[in-house]
Amino acid sequence: MMNIDCVILLASADVCGLYSNQKLDNTDRKRLHQHPELEQRTDWQSSRFLKQQLADPYSIYSLTHKKGHAGLIATSTTQDAIGIDIEYAQKRNFLELAQLFCTENEQAWLVQQADLSTAFYQLWTLKEAFIKVSRGQLADMHRWCLVPQGYNAIHIPAHNPPVKAYSCVIDKNWHISVIYPSSFSISPQCCTSVFGHWQNCQFNWHQWPINPDV
Asked: Helices 94-101 and 116-133, interaxial angle, to 10°?
């Protein structure tokens, strides 16, 4: 793996059989020793499989998993935080849930969307990725307003250092968002590697615009 700004690794649940407990790093080995039941979970197997694909320089990473599927973004060039989140689209009361983590402007924007499910998961995954960038908690969801007052579309808020944000959809139902420093020169389309049956799926990263008022 060549040394570039960052790498993004995505895996469907069928990579679980490729996981090896012999390749765990010291942190995961200690965690597994304390909680041996983790090894039976597909989330653990797929996410640790992705970690095991990283070359040595990529020691800074953000990890996400859902229903045995996993995603990872890693960098070797900066101490700045990076973030990734993955969610599986399912039927929910989106507008009711939005009251728990969206600003009033975001809620008003959601009501207007023809594809409410996609809009909801775009907001959710982007906010989760921002939480990881800022090393925050789920309670910080309201902190990140992605539909600014006076605008009717998602715009990425100011951050120090400045960041870029992207989202994609895989296999129709899987929503993924990544956030990394604007100083990174490579696009996610050029640094993403996919494992498992997701290799047969088409996907394209969409870059979100920056809030023009900041």
From this structure: 20
Do residues 204 and 176 make contact, with C-beta atoms less than 8 angstroms apart? Answer: no
Q: Do 64 and 51 touch, CB atoms closer than 8 A?
A: no
In contact, 86 and 98? CB cutoff 8 Å: no
* Per-residue confidence (pLDDT) for residue 136, from 0 to 100: 81
pLDDT single digits (tens) 25-70: 999 999 999 999 999 999 999 999 999 998 777 888 999 999 999 9
Amino acid identity, residue 209?
Answer: P
Q: Do 126 and 208 meet the contact criterion of CB atoms below 8 Å apart?
A: yes
Whether the Cβ atoms of residue 7 and residue 191 lie closer than 8 Å to each other: yes
Residue indicated by tokens 């900066």: 78
